[in-house]
Amino acid sequence: MSVAEDNIKKFENSNCEDNNVFYQAMEEVIYSIAPLLESDDKYSRYAILDRLVVPDRVLKFKVVWMDDNQKVCVNTGYRVQFNNSLGPYKGGLRFHPTVTEGVLKFLGFEQILKNSLTGLPIGGAKGGSDFNPKGKSDFEIMKFCSAFMTELHKYIGPRIDIPAGDIGVGSREIGYLYGEYKKITSSYEGVLTGKPYMFGGSLMRPEATGYGVVYFTNTMLEIESKDSLEGKVCCVSGAGNVALHVIEKLQDIGAMAVTCSDSNGTIYDPRGVDLALLKELKLEKRLSLEGYLLTHPESKFFPAYQYEEDSHAVWDIPCYAAFPCATQNELTEKDAQNLISNGCVSVTEGANMPCTREATDIFLSHNICFGPAKAANAGGVVVSEFEMSQNASMTKWSYEKVDEKLKEIMQQICTRIALTAKDYGVEGNYVDGANIAGFKKVADAMIAEGI
Ligand code: NDP
Q1: Closest residue by Cα to residue 447 from 119, 22, 47, 155
Q2: CATH second-level architecture of 52-189?
Q3: Does residue 102 have a pLDDT over 90?
Q4: Quick one: CATH architecture of 206-376?
Q5: CA nearest 39: which of 395, 439, 331?
Q6: CB contact at 8 A, 300 and 324
Q7: Is the predicted pLDDT of residue 325 greater than 80, yes or no?
Q8: Ligand 1: distance of its center to the CA of 327 in Å?
Q9: Domain ranges within the chain, ordered by starting residue
Q10: Sorting pLDDT into bands at 50, 70 and 90, what band is 1?
């Protein structure tokens, strides 16, 4: 039995229903790092894999709050503190009805390796709640955030664990969470990132993940001697923070994003997505994408309910490069085949694990340039770390400084994983390159810190 198969068998028991996505993420890493484990037995002697796949702790708590109709509501809150070998725990908070312990374990596990790839001193964590922010008033969001922080504040701190945003948690929610933390602790400190600029946020944090995805993609295309994105048609899914800023940066560099999507369906605008309208609909009014048609009746809307679970309108549109930026497992085997038949050359994951395992395998076997999430969407956590540095030194960096440093780090990540892939005999495979490089740094730190 190979090292990978042996390890897969060992962790099979964790494949219970709630852990499905966690197991999927873990399995990919186990296969990728097999050459590293085979090359040096210190990783098995120190039982690094066994230790890395178990979080340091999983905090689970009750969140009780009152809605606008004076109804008392109960949700579950979580913080999965996964690994702090390289620095304090760091990772976002997700507020979405699909949040479970298993989903947060998957996201936290990915975060360890992602944060390791940035080269910055940050460990991995993730948290959130099954609270659904959709349709809630501003006041209800505030009440929920206060109640959530009443419990969470016990476990976090600027040198312990620094949460940030994720799905359903933007600067409004971070503002309310921070306000409550400050009220409870009387401490004005950098305990959360993604804060509004006026009280300690970094310039460019909202843009960072999306811009970083595009910087990563152009570096990957250059390394692989492919045409850059300039002048090319691109398909983007999602219409949230990551998708909006991928579209914005694509437009900046002269590429054309023709799609976006939300949980109700997909917009296809062959003349290029109207970004100002999209921001108005999704950020200001928080409406469904269908409203886009009122201003652009010539564009098309494909309702999500008309599609089977294994195919999505957004991946059926011909493009040079695809950017899945909505959620996990949103791009399937069938979608991958459609993209390839339509001439797609490059796929970069803006969301966390948006491509199923089968879809990823298809891209890799067809030599599509494939940028995995843990490397390509690291821009958000990179600028979060810049925010921590600015808070700790009581300084403010200019937009240009943040952008320049972000670009430099995204290019470094891409180059490092390309070189790692080459060193381990899998040239061109950025998935294996990212997993090996990310794992090795954490593993070496764990060994150096003792058991
Ligand atoms: P947002 O909440 O801002 O946006 C998520 C978007 O995805 C929304 O438009 C939402 O639609 C859409 N969406 C959700 N589920 C589906 C679905 N099943 N099909 C189609 N669209 C869907 O989240 P972010 O943009 O912040 O995060 C998106 C992804 O990027 C997540 O995987 C997150 O973990 C990852 N990520 C985010 C980072 C960040 O800095 N924000 C950093 C690194 C990774 P609707 O409006 O209808 O809900």
Answers
A1: 47
A2: 3-Layer(aba) Sandwich (3.40)
A3: yes
A4: 3-Layer(aba) Sandwich (3.40)
A5: 439
A6: no
A7: yes
A8: 5
A9: 1-17+26-35, 52-189, 206-376
A10: low
